[in-house]
Amino acid sequence: MLYNINQCMVRICGAAMLVAMIWPATGCKKFIEVDVPVTSVNAGNVYNNNSTATSVLTDIYSNLSQREPTTATPDEALAGVSLVTELSADNLTLFYKDNIRMLAFYENKLLSAGTPSGVYFWDRCYEFIYRINAAMDGITNSTALTPAVQQQLLGECRFFRGFFYFYLVNLYGDVPLVLTADYKQNALLSRTASSTVYNQILTDLLEAKQLLNEQYVAIDMITTGTERLRVNRSAARAMLARVYLYLGDYAKAEAEATAVINNGLYSLLTANVGNTFLKNSQETIWSLQPVQSATQNTWEGKVFLMTTAGPTASRPVYLSDELIALYAPADKRLTSWIGSVKVGTKTYYYPAKYKAGSSVTTLVEYDIVLRLAEQYLIRAEARAQQNNLTGAGSAVSDLNVIRSRAGLADTTIAIQQDMLNAILLERRKELFTEWGHRWFDLKRTGKIDGVMQAYAPVKGTTWESTKSLYPIAQKQIDLNPGMTGQQNLGY
Question: Class of 2-290+368-460+471-483 per CATH?
Fold first, then answer.
């Protein structure tokens, strides 16, 4: 439905939401506040002013995590990948199976028509990409913007486009590569090979790395800020490290991860692992500010945290027994990031990385998108793939940084495949319920069929290899001549 989406975006492109109107006065208002909303009436003037031009990108940030405070549409916002891909994989168990949307993800029975499970991410990403392409045109052609502001905004555009295409290609495979704001032209595009899309992701992220500020910027986009809410150069490097790892360019993955690790802005919270997910923690590279209301913290905290009643319709998932069994009793992540409640004879374990649930009325947590621990694990894997296994500056030294922070003894693994398996295991224990890591790791390492065939009976379902990609909404294909006959296999 690129055609329909883009027609809609013609009406809203440049229409930056005045999100400050959603919030009463809070200590975080400075990030989301803009001078005036941009409408279709004044869109032609939006790039003649630093503040209104900035508001266009601010709107992207705010909409990334904006969603209804219910579980009725778990894939409504892109941040929903933290929930639904875990259901698709093996880290979460669905308790409340009357939730039809979640059940489709859990049983790997998504549909391309009818209940549109699995297709919302496509809609949202292309909506954002259209806005970004239009913004890039406006920002580039403006002669009124302060050069430093213009450069930062263009860097944010490049970062976002690479970021959204990364998720599109990993969720859907080959996707149309939309690089202009010409919605008529875009409506005729067919799907582009994933390898070509990845080349564009690299192009955008490399350009973002050059354009973005090294520090975090304040609301004026020039002075240094304390909030880690707008992407900076390290965010671009972090995404580049991930993309290079996925593509098997291990030397470059190591180099980009090293640059982030060596940046003095970041450090692992070894003294109190439980504080990792507090807003602006030293481990945060980039986070999203909740924008539902002044008193709601993260959506994850709302949907994952359980009461003494255990799982319910509003808290419908819990961590799989298989995942819990992977943790040693001494692992700090087991006690700091995982909660439990006993109902009758059954103990339910649930994600507790975000601890501010509905009862916390002060904004204390942001949704962390990129954090430092991932970079250590990326570098460990990249070094292992280059057969740099032991000693200083090796895969084992990076893996042991993460294990030590978790309170675990150092590993002495010295065989390459054993090391790669250990790193994948550590990624699962470290990055559960975060932005699709488990689902994507299973696919990129070629383990998904073996793992899911073995785990499907636990879910009461069967596994087909075609289900590793989500379906494209058939109505989108029907409305786009360029995509006729290009549905993913199995749908």
Answer: mainly alpha
